[in-house]
Design goal:
Blueprint lengths: L7 E8 L4 H4 L13 H13 L7 E5 L2 H11 L6 E4 L15 H17 L12 H18 L4 E6 L1 H11 L17 E7 L2 E9 L5
Parallel strand pairs: 1-4, 2-3, 2-4
Antiparallel strand pairs: 1-5, 5-6
Helix pairs in contact: 2-3, 5-6
Length: 208
């Protein structure tokens, strides 16, 4: 009887580089903000770090900050970037464009609850964390199921990576903030057949 070989899929997860709104602690959500110079340099460091890694496909959110980061990384791999609208950051509704300080001035009780348990309340006019996770998971499941036994890279957003890891690791969404995901932090999930294993989380080159 022959040995059945289990597929091994590698999924690298990279958060986009820094933007001016990141620097000012503004909620970006689905507002389309480009990288600043620091973000470009961060993406170049990831490009250099991954240059000798075999990658079969590169995917990204369709928002500019993710696309720019992914295009810089893809330059070493001669791969066409594949964009997914479903991998956009969470829609923060009325909070988008506001700093945390500004949000506290207008929505103190609500934002405190959101940071205590983001699954319990929604940003006004925005998505619920559960709807966000379901949206993100649909695209990740499609990507993984279509590309078994491949080396994959997805460039997306902090919230996207947190919610997907929470789903994969079976973490309650109330612990969403327990996962640190910094600008151009690199994480790796390895799938042995259908079983995901977190290999590393939020690796930061030179600690930026």
């Amino acid at each position: 009887m022959g040995v059945i070989k289990m597929s091994e899929t590698h999924l690298y997860l990279v958060r986009h580089g820094e933007t001016d709104w990141n620097k000012k602690l503004r909620f970006q959500g689905q507002t389309d903000i480009v990288l600043n110079e620091t973000g470009i340099q961060q993406a170049i460091k990831v490009k250099d770090f991954l240059k000798d890694k075999k990658l079969d496909y590169i995917f990204s959110s369709d928002l500019s900050r993710a696309v720019q980061t992914a295009e810089i990384i893809a330059d070493n791999h001669n791969l066409k970037l594949i964009k997914y609208q479903g991998l956009r950051e969470m829609n923060f509704g009325e909070w988008e464009g506001m700093t945390y300080t500004e949000i506290k001035e207008h929505y103190l009780e609500l934002v405190n609850k959101w940071f205590e348990d983001p699954s319990s309340v929604n940003p006004p006019g925005g998505e619920s964390l559960q709807d966000f996770q379901d949206r993100v998971s649909d695209d990740f499941n499609e990507i993984i199921n279509k590309h078994r036994d491949k080396k994959l890279l997805v460039v997306a957003h902090g919230g996207v990576i947190r919610t997907w890891l929470a789903r994969v690791l079976k973490m309650p969404l109330e612990h969403y903030w327990s996962l640190e995901v910094d600008n151009t932090g690199i994480s790796l999930l390895k799938y042995y057949g259908d079983s995901p294993v977190l290999n590393y989380l939020n690796y930061k080159i030179d600690s930026f």
